[in-house]
TrEMBL record:
It comes from the Bacteria. Its cofactor is Mg(2+). Its EC number is 3.1.4.52. This is cyclic-guanylate-specific phosphodiesterase. The keyword Repeat does not apply. GO terms for molecular function: cyclic-guanylate-specific phosphodiesterase activity; kinase activity. The lineage of its organism: Bacteria, Pseudomonadati, Pseudomonadota, Gammaproteobacteria, Pseudomonadales. It catalyses: 3',3'-c-di-GMP + H2O = 5'-phosphoguanylyl(3'->5')guanosine + H(+). The keyword Transferase applies. InterPro entries: Biofilm_reg_signaling (IPR052155), EAL_dom (IPR001633), EAL_sf (IPR035919), GGDEF_dom (IPR000160), Nucleotide_cyclase (IPR029787), PAC (IPR001610), PAS (IPR000014), PAS-assoc_C (IPR000700).
Length: 832
């Protein structure tokens, strides 16, 4: 390039001649130096795009010699696409009169493709006219980045590979080498022996994989997920992305750049997610996921099954879809408030189905927040608990009702009483509790069977129910026991009316399977708050009153009163003490002599039981024998008495004291026991006594209680054991049965002698009893003889055997022995 022609060739003649250009001309020399030495491409083009000048640096590029293209269009120099692009930038610079930057890649003489950052700017005259464009291109537009490229690449977590067309890896970063287990030094490798398995399970060798990457890069596929498997058996998941590399405007890529991202964590998370998704689908509980705006974004299969709604039906909808008027608006407000405040809510709600029906659901709602505490989702989980509710109701019903009659049971009754008492305490209410026990019901059960018994109970319950008021609770406690709780009564009269009505309806005949049955009831009543102010007390007192009604002859009602209660607690405490008495030597036997008034001799003794209570002192047998009978203890006690008596007779015998016979009192229960006769005989044998040394005293009432008194007594008679009828005349005296029974003696009751002589009526009875005994040819003895006058009366009427305080009170065995010795021991012995 010539120095003086440099500007000349760039500027038009006019410009050249002007003063404005001239100073620049003076710089020509400097510029020429720059032109030659600058490591940049500088080109000057006129407005037609012809290259007027090009700096020496152009020689570095793989271009024809400059002489061939200077003065020509850029199209002569570069491929049409590049030439067109550069011409476009120049035109833009000229038109907009501003610099336009662009990047292009040119091939160097060394065959390397290098990138140049370029700027094309117009040369503007003082008339603001663009006369040419100057383009300055700096080699290595990214030169600073290029220097750092290896460092950048090795810092990447992703693996980067440049894959040549033949599958060879021509560039790899550290991450890629680690991921694919390439040697550290490898820059250009044929890949070692590894393979990948793609998501469809297809196995690809290393080379196949790299080629596949190239193939899918050209097909614009975004990525490929593979499992990389090395020889070591270890495998890792990789996500590969590939981009084809094109040179200039070549259509065919000359290489592929692939990035490899290790996605083991992602895969693991994906796997876990798949498990959760599966779980979500398989769970039997319906699940709804709402977004923060409370729009449904996901539902599971159970949801559709339960509600009939498909996912399409509800996705995008809000919770109002499932709302039903069965739930109060307050309920929804309550849920919303709980979600806002606590982040969760759990409870029962009614939910509607697609078909309009509804069901009871157990719902758990949770508010889900993201990592920054911002609301992210809501999750509702619910299940249909209608069946459980139904079962619960059934169970509840069963737990509170009697299965036979359908009446409330004890639990429900007590709940109601409790509730009523609480309310009454506030409102001064009055209630009554009626304990209704059916009389003789056991006999129906025993004779007609339980089936019939059940029918009688059901019918009795039905009748009773008809007598009750709306607010009353009639309950069955079990067996033949019922209770009526009358809530809010006004007077005792009102209660009595109902109780009497109950007695009437219960005692009306029952027609069951063509047979007629009769029962009655005993009703005990306690009154709130007069008698007690809690369930326990009311129940106990009604029970006591009922017991009283029973004792007074059944088929009646009885009101509780405190005296009854005291008697009962006295009885209960004695009962307990009596259990202990036998084992603690608190019981002992006393003996009362029986005298023949003609000779004055002792003809026998009556054994009478005594109880020395540690605190109460001596307890009367009149008090404790009935308790022993009621509790069944009488069998053990009676047996003990028989043993004591037999032992005592044998001891007296050994001492040479003669007691011809000892009378022992026997209760109905003892007689009823099948083993009793055997036990009596066993005691006699054990103490080596003959059977006539013992006399069993039975009261008339005892005989009346026995099913087959005759057979029972016959066994004793056959064994040679004497039998006496005690308290004769006080009970049901029948000549007929006296004839039939094998009785050896009648005992005139003390009560008839008390006013004898004097009371003509009693005198007649005593005479009649003595006459009867004589007529039946059996012995007679009078008890309770306290005075000489009584004894004289008896003597005059030919009763010579007496027992009473006149001759001696019942005394302990030792005292009795002394008594025997004192009273004519020699004659006494003769009597034997
Ligand atoms: N006022 C008065 N009373 C007299 C007189 N002579 C005797 N007595 C009392 O009259 C009762 C006679 O006995 P019981 O009629 O068999 O009546 C007996 C008997 O039924 C029963 N009992 C006593 N011991 C036994 C026993 O071992 N077994 C059974 N099952 N009952 C017994 O207890 C009842 C009462 O016995 P106790 O209190 O011992 O009362 C005895 C006796 O102490 C008298 O002159 N004046």
């Amino acid at each position: 390039m010539r120095g003086d022609g440099w500007f000349h060739s760039v500027c038009s003649k006019d410009d050249y001649m002007t003063e404005r250009v001239e100073p620049l001309y003076k710089l020509d020399d400097v510029l020429q130096r720059i032109w030659r030495a600058a490591p940049v491409l500088i080109s000057i083009k006129n407005v037609q795009g012809e290259i007027l000048a090009a700096s020496d640096h152009f020689d570095q590029l793989e271009l024809p010699p400059r002489s061939q293209w200077l003065g020509k269009s850029i199209k002569e120099l570069f491929a049409p696409a590049i030439a067109q692009r550069i011409a476009g930038y120049d035109q833009q610079a000229l038109a907009q009169q501003r610099p336009i930057s662009f990047i292009e890649e040119w091939k160097t003489k060394q065959g390397k493709h290098e990138t140049y950052r370029a700027v094309s700017f117009p040369l503007i005259t003082s008339e603001e006219k663009a006369v040419c464009t100057i383009a300055v291109s700096r080699h290595g537009a990214h030169s600073s980045s290029n220097d750092e490229l290896p460092a950048v690449l090795s810092a990447l977590v992703e693996g980067v590979l440049k894959i040549e067309l033949d599958g060879a890896v021509s560039l790899s970063n550290t991450a890629a080498r680690e991921l694919l287990q390439l040697p550290e030094t490898s820059q250009q490798n044929w890949l070692p022996d590894w393979h990948v398995v793609d998501e469809e399970g297809k196995r690809l060798s290393a080379i196949e994989f790299l080629q596949a990457l190239q193939a899918f890069a050209t097909r614009d596929e975004t990525h490929k997920v593979v499992r990389f498997c090395a020889d070591s058996n270890a495998s890792k998941w990789l996500m590969a992305q590939a981009q084809p590399l094109y040179r200039d405007n070549e259509k065919k890529p000359y290489a592929t750049v692939a990035s490899l991202v290790p996605i083991d964590q992602l895969k693991k998370a994906e796997h876990e997610l798949a498990i959760y998704a599966d779980l979500l689908e398989r769970t039997s509980e319906a699940i709804i996921v709402y977004n923060a705006e409370r729009r449904i974004i996901k539902v599971n299969r159970a949801f559709s099954k339960l509600t009939g709604y498909s996912a399409d039906d509800v996705v995008g909808a809000g919770p109002e879809v499932f709302r039903t008027p069965i739930n109060s608006p307050e309920r929804y407000q309550q849920i919303d408030a709980a979600l806002t405040v606590d982040g969760c809510w759990q409870g029962e709600v009614e939910r509607s189905r697609r078909d309009g029906s509804s069901f009871t659901a157990w719902l758990t709602c949770n508010r889900i927040e993201d990592g920054h505490g911002e609301l992210s989702h809501f999750i509702s989980i619910f299940s249909d608990i209608s069946e459980i509710k139904h079962q619960q109701r059934t169970l509840d019903y069963l737990a509170h009702h009697d299965s036979l009659t359908g009446l409330p049971n004890r639990n429900l009754l007590f709940d109601r009483i409790d509730h009523a008492i609480n309310v009454a305490t506030r409102k001064n209410g009055i209630h009554a509790l009626l304990f209704i026990d059916l009389d003789h019901f056991k006999e129906i059960n025993d004779s007609a069977g339980h089936g019939t018994g059940d029918k009688v109970l059901i019918e009795a319950a039905r009748r009773m129910q008809l007598c009750t008021r709306k607010q009353d609770t009639l309950a069955r406690l079990g067996g033949d026991e019922f209770m009526l709780f009358m809530e809010g009564v006004t007077s005792k009269e009102e209660v009595s009316v109902v109780a009497n009505r109950l007695l009437n309806v219960i005692s009306a005949p029952y027609q069951i399977e063509h047979k007629e049955f009769f029962i009655s009831a005993s009703i005990g009543i306690s009154y709130f708050p007069e008698d007690g102010n809690d369930v326990e007390a009311l129940l106990t007192y009604a029970d006591i009153a009922m017991y009283q009604a029973k004792s007074s002859g059944r088929n009646r009602l009885s009101w509780y009163n405190r005296r009854l209660s005291e008697e009962l607690s006295e009885r209960v405490s004695l009962e307990r003490a009596l259990h202990r008495a036998l084992g603690h030597d608190e019981l002992f036997v006393v003996y009362q002599p029986q005298i023949d008034v003609l000779s004055g001799q002792i003809i026998g003794a009556e054994a009478l039981l005594r109880w020395q209570h540690p605190e109460r002192g001596l307890v009367s047998p009149a008090l404790f024998i009935p308790i022993a009978e009621k509790t069944g203890l009488i069998n053990a006690i009676g047996d003990w008495v028989l043993d004591q008596v037999c032992r005592q007779i044998a001891e007296w015998d050994q001492q040479g004291l003669n007691v011809p016979l000892v009378a022992v009192n026997v209760s109905a229960q003892q007689l009823g026991s099948e083993q009793f006769a055997d036990r009596v005989l066993a005691h006699l044998i054990h103490h080596q006594l003959s059977s006539e040394r013992l006399e069993l005293e039975l009261t008339e009432s005892v005989l009346m209680c026995l099913d087959d008194a005759n057979a029972c007594m016959r066994r004793f008679a056959d064994a040679g054991i004497r039998l006496a009828i005690d308290d004769f005349g006080t009970g049901f005296s029948s000549l007929a049965y006296l004839r039939a029974l094998p009785v050896q003696r009648l005992k005139i009751d003390r009560s008839f002698l008390m006013e004898v002589p004097g009371n003509r009526n009693d005198e007649s009875i005593v005479r009649a009893v003595i006459g009867l005994a004589h007529n039946l040819n059996i012995d007679v003895i009078a008890e309770g003889v306290e005075t000489e006058l009584q004894q004289q009366f008896l003597h005059q009427n030919h009763c010579y055997a007496v027992q009473g305080y006149l001759h001696g009170k019942p005394i302990k065995a030792n005292d009795f022995a002394a008594y025997l010795r004192r009273t004519s021991p020699s004659e006494n012995r003769l009597l034997r």
